[in-house]
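In the lab's daily routine, each protein ends up as an entry in a very long ledger. A line of letters takes care of the sequence, but it says nothing directly about the fold. The three-dimensional part falls to structure tokens, numbers that each stand for a local backbone shape. The outcome of that step, for a single protein, is printed below.
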Amino acid sequence: MDFNSHADAIVRVAVGLVNELTPGERRGRAFPPPRDLVSAAAEGLRAGYPNHREVTEGEAGELVEIAARLRGVFDAVATGDIDAAVLQVNGLLEETRARPLLDRHDGEPWHLHFHGPGGTMAGDWAASCATGLAIVLGSEFHDRLGVCTAPHCDRVYVDVSRNGTRRFCGTACQNRVKTAAFRARGRVP
């Protein structure tokens, strides 16, 4: 399932930023705030854009704040509160003054950006991520945003599968849950 290639990449960036920059739990273990914010922020951006440039310390700090706000969108969707998710996205859209603009750079064909020239890197990503999430929330696929249902994991994902039944952030958590269920069945008298 694809919204469009650019919007898909932006939603992957939103997922990457949340998963790399927000504390919580990951794969059954505590996930503290990253020690190296610069590397974690770059890794989050590279979830959608593998060749994204390095970020500065200041940009990384701003991205941490944006990631926390984006997490709220995923958390709201996971609890079924689409209205709260939409309010959070609309707030980001308004604050960043997100607007569509066709742009061509770095040898790429024309593609849609959601921010104008002259903004900060973090502000531009906030506008883009908010717009990408708005595209998802404004479609029949709003339930494709999720938070991992494995015990002791709160990483987020976007479900791009055909049947839309994803429940885990990745195969490691899926395997943990399946293994635990298998072992539990073996213990039943």
Observations:
- The CA atoms of residues 2 and 8 lie 7 Å apart.
